[in-house]
Amino acid sequence: MTASSIADNDRYSEAFNDFNDESMEGADYDLFEQYLADDEDLNIPERGDLREGMIVEVRSSEILVNIGAKRDGVVPQADIARLDKEYAATLKMGEMVPVVVSKLTTDEGMLILSIADALQKRDWLTAEKMLESHEITVRPVVGYNKGGLLVEFGHLRGFIPASHIVGLPRNLSEEDRNRRFDEMIGEELPVEVIEVERRRRRLVLSHRLAERKYREERKLLLFEEMNVGDVVEGEVRSLRPFGAFVDIGGADGLLHVSEIGWTPVSHPRDVLQVGDVIKVEVLRLDAERSRIALSRKKLLPNPWESIEERYRQGETVLVTITRVVDFGAFAQLEPGVEGLIHVSELAEIEVAEPLKSVATGDRVAVKILRVDPERQRIGLSRRQADDMTGQALLEAEMDQSAEQAEESADVPADVSTDTSAEVSTDTSVAEAPVTEAPVTETPVESDNKE
């Protein structure tokens, strides 16, 4: 502090004391009022400070901003060019804008300010707070590089490594991965901030962690809103040998393989594909274990309800052997309806090993011994089946198959008859444990230079 400023402060102190003693003269009172007004000027900005200022003039090549330090600052044209055009168009006299002090003074004694740096600095501060709070935010995908996706984070660009993207297979080729990334541009993804390094301009986000946290919260809400017996619509997210996980509104429920339909299913992919939208009924809600059990079978027609109208005791029918067990063989009469041929009814008594007389997939004629719709059971006998009726049924079935083959052969060669089902690739990670691997991809520079 200079000698003159010390002297001024002494005079102000004396004036203040005189004011308290109520003996201050008019000139000293004016001096005191000036001191109070000048107090704001003591808050001199420093380089790098983030301030809020008011636009006082918009010129062709610069913008003048008052930041409350009794001096104006200037935002040069080079800085304005770094701003988004739509945002730059809103900069008018009287508008409040964030600025960063780039240079303390010019030859004219003005401050050099930057709106672009201020917007980015404000976003960096927001990212740091979200890193501490683990807050989930939704951000749009705006691009990608070889390591992952780029998302808009205010005036910054955030980076989502490929290992933190939900639903992205790890064995994709570079071409397929880029195609998948390109399809995701424009999507809005929930993300969690996992790394902020302002000096290195690194802002790393995780879609996987945000999605898992969102689903956990959504599942808790569903346990409060949903009841057993509710029918809801969901999307198949992943397939496992034991069943399918279905998204029913932000949370996954398990559709066990036994609840997919009335027909026995060896693997869910034989009936369902990832992305299918289906209706399911809520079977069980286990809030303590955070599990939801679903059923598709309950919403499909039950073939056992009118079983006695289609199958009568004593008649001979054709069936397909589905399983051979120690006590006999199970046989399918129609999709969803199976009966049991007891080992004693598989072959004549003189056959030494009756279980070897049939194999899975065989078409055989059987006699219906009993029908129990309440217990959903049908007793069958291959030994007692009428041979003539069985032979006639087999010949009729063979003739029908031959006619269908001839019709298919008459189809013109340029018409595709390929009806093979596409095998769905399980790409979802729902319900799977997450192992966080260190981020090794190189994030993009977050500097917005549009």
Report on the structure:
- By secondary structure, the protein is an alpha+beta fold.
- The chain has five domains: 3-42; 50-120, OB fold (Dihydrolipoamide Acetyltransferase, E2P) (Beta Barrel); 134-209, OB fold (Dihydrolipoamide Acetyltransferase, E2P) (Beta Barrel); 226-299, OB fold (Dihydrolipoamide Acetyltransferase, E2P); 307-400, Nucleic acid-binding proteins (OB fold (Dihydrolipoamide Acetyltransferase, E2P)), CATH 2.40.50.
- Helix content is 26%, strand content 31%.
- A hairpin with a 5-residue loop joins strand 2 (62-66) and strand 3.
- The two termini are 44 Å apart.
- Mean pLDDT is 80; it is low at 1-9, 11-16, 18-24 and 413-450.
Q: Can you give me a brief rundown of this structure?
A:
This protein has 450 residues and is an alpha+beta fold. Helices cover 26% and strands 31% of the residues.
Biggest sheet architecture:
5 strands, mixed, barrel
CA radius of gyration is 39 Å
In the predicted model, the low-confidence regions spanning at least 5 consecutive residues are: 1-9, 11-16, 18-24, 413-450
The second-level CATH architecture of the largest domain is Beta Barrel
Number of strands: 20
The CATH topology of the largest domain is given as OB fold (Dihydrolipoamide Acetyltransferase, E2P)
> Any idea what the CATH superfamily of the largest domain is called?
Nucleic acid-binding proteins
Number of helices: 9
Order of helices and strands: HHEEEHHEEHEEEHEEHEEEEEHEEEEEH
